[in-house]
Write a structure and sequence with these properties.
With 141 residues, the protein is an alpha+beta fold. The chain has four helices and seven strands, in the order H-H-E-E-E-E-E-E-E-H-H. The protein has a five-stranded antiparallel beta sheet, with no helix packed on it. The chain has a two-stranded antiparallel sheet with strand order 6-7. A hairpin with a 2-residue loop joins strand 6 and strand 7. The model has no long low-confidence stretch (mean pLDDT 78).
């Protein structure tokens, strides 16, 4: 079901204001309390993930209520689906489904397809681990 609460690209394409509000493609600028407009490259996430901080002055940067999403412990300044391909979204959902149900997405007698799935799973898990490591607050000496 397509609705305003889901992040469905077809729905957002038909609703131009929603596409802008959700900062599809992360092209919109954030609003720094001190410096005014700041691109995403000019901010970093606070160690606790609660806000974006301007690299120039250290003030809070807001990308807008609809655009700024909290995904688990990560904060992103726009729709996450706009940053990766539909095939990648499908593969991530496939691995997630398999992990939750404990089932392989193919018949177990089809070894080649099962091996392909495990290659995909290893890639998704590896990338998840890399992202979590990069987002982990750094200890200062």
């Amino acid at each position: 079901m397509k609705n305003a609460e889901s992040f469905d690209c077809d729905y957002c394409e038909k609703t131009k204001q929603l596409k802008k509000d959700r900062n599809c493609g992360w092209q919109g600028f954030g609003k720094c309390d001190e410096c005014d407009n700041v691109p995403f490259e000019g901010v970093e996430m606070a160690p606790d993930g609660s806000k974006f901080i301007c690299l120039t002055c250290g003030s809070r940067v807001k990308f807008g209520r609809a655009a700024e999403l909290v995904l688990g412990k990560y904060r992103v300044p726009g729709c996450p689906k706009s940053m990766i391909s539909q095939q990648a979204v499908f593969l991530i959902q496939l691995v997630d489904w398999s992990e939750k149900t404990g089932k392989l997405p193919t018949a177990q007698t089809l070894m080649e397809e099962s091996l392909l799935y495990f290659d995909i799973r290893n890639f998704v898990v590896s990338e998840t681990n890399i992202a979590e490591e990069e987002m982990r607050p750094k200890e200062t000496a």
